Amino acid sequence: MTLRGRAFWLGSPGAGEIRPVTLAPPGPAEVLVRSLWSGVSRGTETIVFRGGVPPSQWAAMRAPYQEGDFPAPVKYGYLNVGVVEDGPDELRGRAVFCLYPHQTRYVVPATAVTPVPDGVPPRRAVLAGTVETAVNALWDAAPLVGDRVAVVGGGMVGCSVAAVLARFPGVRVQLVDADPARARTAAALGVDFATPGDAAGDRDLVIHASATSAGLARSLELLAPEGTVVELSWYGDRAVTIPLGEHFHSRRLTVRGSQVGTVSPAVKGRRTYADRLALALELLADPAFDALLTGESAFDELPALLPRLASGELPALCHLVRYDAGDAAPAG
Fold this sequence. Notes:
Elements: E1 3-12, E2 15-23, E3 30-41, H1 42-49, E4 67-68, E5 74-75, E6 80-86, E7 95-98, E8 105-109, E9 114-115, H2 122-125, H3 128-141, E10 148-152, H4 156-165, E11 172-176, H5 182-189, E12 192-194, E13 203-208, H6 213-221, E14 223-231, E15 254-257, H7 273-283, E16 293-298, H8 302-311, E17 318-322
Parallel strand pairs: 10-11, 10-13, 11-12, 13-14, 14-15, 16-17
Antiparallel strand pairs: 1-2, 3-6, 3-8, 3-17, 4-5, 6-7, 7-9
Helix pairs in contact: 1-8, 3-4, 3-7
C-alpha cells in the first residue's frame, strides 16, 4: 500500500505552499504517525520564513527532519504531536511528540518519538520542544533558592522559562515585556510582570529572550553586581549592539549564551537529549502552560498564516496547527 500525505514547504522566502508527499511503509523499527497538532515557533520559524538564516548558521539551524536547504525551498518545523498508526505494539495508538515539520503523516524511527504522558493533552504537548529549551537554559543558568530573576522577553521561549522558574522554591520571578497585555500571561503562569521601564533591578540572574538589542541592554541594567545574563535570543542575520562601556566591567557582569542544540555542559554525561525531552513533557502536566497556546488554524491555512505571523499582524505565542482525520488518508 502506498501512503500519501501533505507537507508545508517554504517555496521561496516569504511564500509557503502545501505539497503532496509519498511515504514508504514503516519498517520493523519505525513508526507511522498521523499528525494531530503542530506548533509554529513564532521566533525561529518566522526568521526561517523570511529567509533570515545567515549562511554561517545553515548547518547549525537544520531541524532533525528538515528537507531542502536554507534559504529555500525548505520543509522546516519541530513541534509535532501525532498518534502512532503503525509500529511497535507498545507505541501503536499512543500520542507521541516528535521534532518533525508540519506534515499530515510521516514515518520516522521509533526512537525519534516520545510518548506523551497521561494527563498531558496532545495540544499542550506541542510545547514540549520549547519547554525543553527552557529546561536546558535553566540547567545553564543554575538559579539558586531565593534568587531574584528577571525574564526579559515574553515570547514563547521567555514565557516557558518563566513558567518553569515559577516552580522553583523561593525564586522571585518577574516577566518583563514591552507589551502590557503580557501581564495576563504572567499572571496565568504565576509570576510578576513589568514593562521594561518599571522592571525591578538588582537581579541575581536575567534570562534574555526578546531578540532585541534594547532588551539585551535592559537585561544588563537589571543585574546586581556580578550577576549573569543568559542569552536565549536568536537574532538570525540581524546585527546586535550591546553597551559594554558603562557599568559592564565595573560591576563584573557576565553574558552567557545558551542553545538547545547541545545538552547543557552542567549536566552532560548525566542527562541525554531523551531525558531532557521527557522531562519537558512531564512538566507540561501543569495546565498553566495553556496560557502559551494563543491561536489555532487548520493545516490548509498555513500558507496564509505564516506571513501574518512573520509580519506581526497576528500576535501569538504558540500558534497551533490542527490536522483533521481526513488530511492524510492512505491510498494505494
